[in-house]
Specification:
The structure is a homodimer. By secondary structure, chain A is an alpha/beta fold. Chain A is built from 27 helices and 20 strands. Chain A has three domains: 307 residues, Rossmann fold, CATH 3.40.50; 189 residues, Thiamin diphosphate (ThDP)-binding fold, Pyr/PP domains (Rossmann fold); 130 residues, Rossmann fold, CATH 3.40.50. In chain A, the strands form five sheets. The first copy, chain A, has a six-stranded parallel beta sheet with strand order 10-9-11-12-14-13, with helices on both faces. The longest helix of chain A has 21 residues. The radius of gyration of chain A is 28 Å and the shape is elongated. Chain A starts with a helix and ends in a 10-residue tail after the last helix. The relative contact order of chain A is 0.09. Chains A and B meet through helix 7, helix 8, helix 9, helix 17 and helix 19 of A and helix 7, helix 8, helix 9, helix 17 and helix 19 of B. Chains A, B: One of its GO terms (biological process) is pentose-phosphate shunt.
């Protein structure tokens, strides 16, 4: 490509794009680590997007009606940091750029949500950003339907690379976007033909245009270095009735010795080559130096959105007060004042009625009272609506002719659902929850981890949470999945024992501002164990004494979810034998861990033998069994030691030895000094 | 649809297909659980496939050159069980069919590999079967190139439903199949327009034909109930130079009151409606009764392949003895006799040279000596070849013009790679290993779990296994992933400390017949800690004394992988202070758990304080810290308590407190009685 001719044809554009290229090149070289080629290759498209289309205001980075810009190809983080710096985001100083990838800097290797303003989502694990974006675009549609076009009317722009498009989750995302005609979603594909291992053709020869068309998208193919073509494509995309993919034919590491090679994908650190590249671009200033005129023109771009933002504020202020309050409350992730009283009333009613219900059905009952008072909830399921019990009567179904519908039929797309829910949460104004079978935590994992890392309160409703699902067998029976979610930092794993604990878990999940929740719910019916009404949210304590020993306390049974009623039955057996037994329900370990030592000690005092009962593997339980004043030789575990099997649930619990009698026998053995190690302790 | 006209047009076909339909309907009704509609809807296609195309022999179900049939829509398991029963697989008795989904039966809710002959892979988690199938088809190509068309020449047939096609992993699989022109892969799509939540259009409107064409497939659209069209499509598919998708337009639960509804997807248990359905099909016998003539014609289909199998055996016997032996050895998952000596010689050389190497580089060195003597290995990476160090010089690259190549550029498809590797392992004759960053365990999880469940020895090479990867930051830094894999039943998690342990881990992973392995390898360089050569494979013991205390043993440091050298440095610090310290390297917990109590006690005696060092979260360590003769108040953990950060690796280890000095200080504190709980113990 004749770079001189390019520069001559569009000198202003060229120098602005060069500023991105140069900052990226310098920052990566200084860090001796990172990805130079992508920011260099996509600088033209990003420049035109920010200059002529993106509606944003660096002085109000969280303005709710801004356009969203998502760098799905997160390894090209310097593209984003350069844009934020050049357009005048206050926190993105030149010092931060110079400290790219260093301890304490906000300029992490991949864009981390919450580190710097203007980062809309954490990207890096490929395919996540484009899938988040679908959630952003859905959130915009839903909010527009709820609040009107005057206050919600913005676009979601994505830059995605070949890696994003090869990840399977992108297929889930783009077919979902096509299905819902998300016309305000625009994906710019950095079509540079290069991956780490070499040319894309080494591993993939997909006709991406045909693929997107098959998913219901409009596709525009352009020269990704031509500002006129980029501008025209974006203009057309914004008028589309379908989501738009703009295939930008680009050269990775444009103008560098590593142009069009996989070497160009990584860190370009050869000083001589970097100098030559800058010369080829016509960039003459020193490292990290942006000529004043160029900086001013970028600042002007950054200042462009102020008027629009102020006009929006005026329009917003003209909304009825109630609408404004709800809007602001939802964006602030505050729950409505009514929530607490609503949950209490529900609990009282359930304690009195003491229904026998699967906790998935309990969950539906809870949602039936919560959803009407929290218009920001958006429910859904990955094609298991009737099984996950996620749909309540008032939600309405999100569709092309019902944009205000708050229930999403996500289809068989657990991963795409989780990622899009994250997008909705990040967009703001909505509280998404979505269901699948707990075993399919596996499919949703990459996005579940990112919710935890980003500190956003997405709610994952995981039903059929043990062998209790029965005949579907080991492929569908979670065994290690409680451990997996508990192992993940910043994740609440709720495993409620009955309808009351389910209500309390939901209250906590929906009150969380910075921690995602996993709700582990049963397929099978469970008795109400909380028959005595308490206004206090006991799950908030993480673990508590559900029923204390009668007489001398000789044993403590610890259990979660469906095994709490087993523990209660074991307690009855033991009490009949004169063995005083306490039952501790432990619906949320993470919250119990946050309690102080004195409280934990009151719940789990030293002395009695301890038996934990949970229809999952043992990993993690040792803290509560041996630790916290327990002793290995005075403790036992009743649970799973391997994958499950296909049979009716009651047969499985019996055959696999997860019964009240087994728990009682374990207590008797321990009291008699007959401790035995687990086969897999 | 006029069922009578259908029956009249092809009476023989119709009655055979009816046998499948009736058995499925009866078995699901008897179990009161399962999926009736899919077997009913796909009975025609399956009948034609088995009658006229599938090359198989029920009397030799593992005949290596059989065609493979994969029921990707695993919930329709009764389709498969009916076919196996009708064609005469000995273990699939009518009794088993009657015990569908019951305890102890081989007829699990979803087809479980290893439960019954003729089940080629475990399916149920949607999208897995079709992705396994790509691995099967690649394995066939590779083996054909190695052994010749006379002994390897078979097709892989798949039945996939809408759910399989909506799962993102299917996109990874089909684009891979298209890229490699896997012409002997044929997918029959059960295009019935129904999912659990309702019509497919509720959540998806993808043009599947366009999608497959964009991925490089040939697509044939047919009436899925017309045996002539089915036969013609299969005939054409077999001659194709591309993979073929046959879109079979079908009616779920054909002829039943629930036909074409989502109710028809599930268990059809209404006796009256079931009777009416049978009447509509023209099926007049009682439950589980197949008229003798129909059974005979099915048995004839089952007998069809015997001659071909015998002819194959004759051709196989004419292979040179060496080839035959290698072929049989690889199918039996036996390692070559040379392996042990090769690994020993390598270990000796490395102990002497004591290189400082990242274990990912150690792994490459090991593979450089193993791959040449194990022609059954197939390596690969999800677009991180240079980072995962999975490619050795002799493998050659698998491609359309080099079918014998043993290295696969999987592209950015971690999930598809893992599932296809499972397919290769299931196909037989190959030992696949593939790499990605350990953090992307998340993407590969669904297939990794299935490897464990199926008991197949797939090897997952997970490099960049901690914050030691440095600047890429928290999105790329595994923290909980060791715990995740350790939580999974039947999985070896190897975290070697140096080149020697890496060699020992590889020897074990490649010797395993029934357990998949995760190799957790560093990005950063590590010193050799096993400088004294031992012929014995110490990793086989799971944990062992790497260096014992000098003087009185006051402390035991336990560590894995990159933290073993930290433990050794801490030991030096402590010895200088007169504190006798043992270092226990624990490269594979699962293998240590298998050791007897006496051995475990020798390695981890009671008494000394214990400190575990691992750059991951604590979960799981409590067993070794408090359990196994340890005490909570005499133990400590040096590791991660949250997600990582973006900075150079050495800065991260220091800032996050994972250092030799921190470990030494923890020992001093514990010896002084100054125990403190972890923030997240």
């Amino acid at each position: 490509m004749d770079l001189k001719a390019r520069a001559a044809a569009h000198p202003d554009h060229w120098s602005k794009a060069n500023a991105i290229r140069a900052l990226a090149l310098d920052a990566v070289a200084a860090a001796n680590s990172g990805h130079s080629g992508m920011p260099i290759g996509m600088a033209d498209a990003a420049t035109v997007l920010f200059e002529k289309h993106l509606n944003f205001d660096p002085t109000a980075p969280n303005w709710p009606d801004r356009d969203r810009f998502i760098l799905s190809a997160g390894h090209g983080s310097m593209l984003l940091y350069a844009l934020l710096h050049l357009t005048g985001y206050e926190d993105m100083t030149l010092e931060q750029i110079k400290n790219f990838r260093q301890w304490g800097a906000i300029t992490a290797g991949h864009p981390e949500y919450g580190h710097a303003t203007g980062i809309e989502t954490t990207t890096g694990p490929l395919g996540q950003g484009i899938s988040n974006a679908v959630g952003f675009a859905m959130a915009e549609e839903i909010q527009r339907a709820h609040y009107g076009k005057k206050v919600v009317d913005h676009y979601t722009y994505v830059i995605a690379g070949d890696g994003c498009l090869m990840e399977g989750v992108s297929q889930e995302a783009i077919t979902l976007a096509g299905r819902h005609q998300l016309s305000k979603l625009v994906v710019l594909w950095d079509n540079n033909n290069i991956t780490i291992d070499g040319p894309v053709s080494l591993s993939d020869r997909t006709d991406q245009v045909g693929r997107f068309v098959s998913a219901g998208w409009d596709v525009i193919e352009i020269d990704g270095h031509d500002p006129v073509e980029i501008d025209a494509a974006l203009t057309r995309a914004k008028k589309n009735q379908k989501p738009t993919m703009i295939a930008c034919k680009t050269h990775i590491a444009l103008g560098h010795a590593a142009q069009d090679t996989s070497k160009g994908h990584g860190a370009l650190t050869n000083a001589e080559q970097n100098t030559a590249a800058k010369a080829a671009w016509g960039w003459t200033t020193g490292p990290f130096e942006v000529p004043d005129a160029v900086l001013q023109s970028w600042h002007a771009i950054g200042a462009r959105g102020k008027a629009a933002r102020e006009a929006w504020e005026a329009r917003f202020d003209s909304l009825p007060r109630g609408k404004r309050e709800t809007f602001n409350r939802a964006y602030a992730l505050e729950v409505p004042k009514k929530l607490s009283a609503t949950v209490k009333a529900f609990k009282k009613q359930m304690s009195e009625g003491a229904p026998k219900l699967a906790t998935r059905a309990s969950s539906e009952k809870v949602l039936e009272v919560i959803n009407p008072i929290m218009p920001e909830t958006v429910g859904g399921s990955a094609d298991l609506t009737g099984s996950n019990n996620t749909k309540t009567s008032d939600l309405g179904v999100f569709d092309t002719d019902n944009r205000g519908g708050r229930y999403v039929y996500w289809g068989i797309r657990e991963h795409g659902m989780a990622a899009a829910m994250n997008g909705m949460a990040l967009h703001g104004g909505l509280r998404p929850y979505g269901g699948t079978f707990m075993c399919f935590t596996d499919y949703a994992r990459p996005a579940m981890r990112l919710a935890a890392l980003m500190k956003i309160p997405t709610v994952f409703v995981m039903t059929h949470d043990s062998i209790g699902l029965g005949e579907d067998g080991p492929t569908h029976q979670p065994v290690e999945h409680l451990a997996i979610s508990r192992a993940t930092p910043n994740t609440y794993v709720f495993r409620p024992a009955d309808t009351i604990e389910t209500a309390e878990s939901w209250e906590l999940a929906l009150s969380s501002k910075t921690t995602p929740s996993v709700l582990s719910l049963t397929r099978q019916g469970l008795p109400t164990v909380r028959t005595e009404h308490k206004t206090r949210n006991m799950v908030a304590q993480g673990a508590y004494v559900l029923a204390d020993a009668v007489g001398k306390r000789q044993a403590i049974l610890m259990a979660t979810g469906s095994e709490v009623s087993l523990a209660m039955a074991a307690r009855d057996i033991l009490h009949a034998e004169g063995i005083g037994t306490r039952v501790v329900s432990m619906p949320c370990w993470e919250l119990f861990e946050e309690q102080d030592e004195a409280l934990r000690k009151r719940v789990l005092p030293g002395g009695p033998v301890r038996v934990a009962i949970e229809a999952g593997i043992r990993m993690g339980w040792d803290r509560w069994l041996f630790g916290e004043r327990g002793k290995r030789e005075k403790s036992g575990f009743i649970g799973m030691h391997d994958f499950g099997a296909s049979a009716p649930a009651d047969v499985l619990f019996k055959e696999l030895g997860i019964t009240a009698e087994a728990a009682a026998q374990k207590v008797r053995d321990l009291l008699a000094g007959k401790w035995k190690p687990d086969t897999r302790v």
